[in-house]
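With this grant's support, the team has encoded backbone shapes as discrete tokens. A representative record is reproduced below.
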Amino acid sequence: MSAPARLVAALGSGLIFGLGLSLSGMLDPARVRGFLDVTGAWDPSLMFVLGGAVTIAALGYQLVRRLPKPAFAPEFQIPTNRRIDGGLIGGSALFGIGWGLSGFCPGPAVAALSTGVLPVAVFVATMLIGMTAYRLVSGS
């Protein structure tokens, strides 16, 4: 598959993902913090969004098992490492702490750039700095 076709497919997928996040209200960090506030004004909407995402992903994995190869790549890239180590636990904890404090995870943060709100741009910029610092330190 040609590079432009893969780029168009990636752009289309990203636009659908961003539209879904926008329609579900997940671009609002207050909604995420409301979900985490189980002792106060708890907002269960994130649970339904995550449940929908898990359902779609499960259906997608079932489809992957039946297809010989993906439409826009030479092969499927399914993780094979099932080891739980300190890096996975530490990274998961850091992700969760950042998500809880800011109300953003990477996907919704990038989609929320479309709102033009300065704190979103600051979050995305610092996220990119952190990703770059990790690559420099780890050698990945």
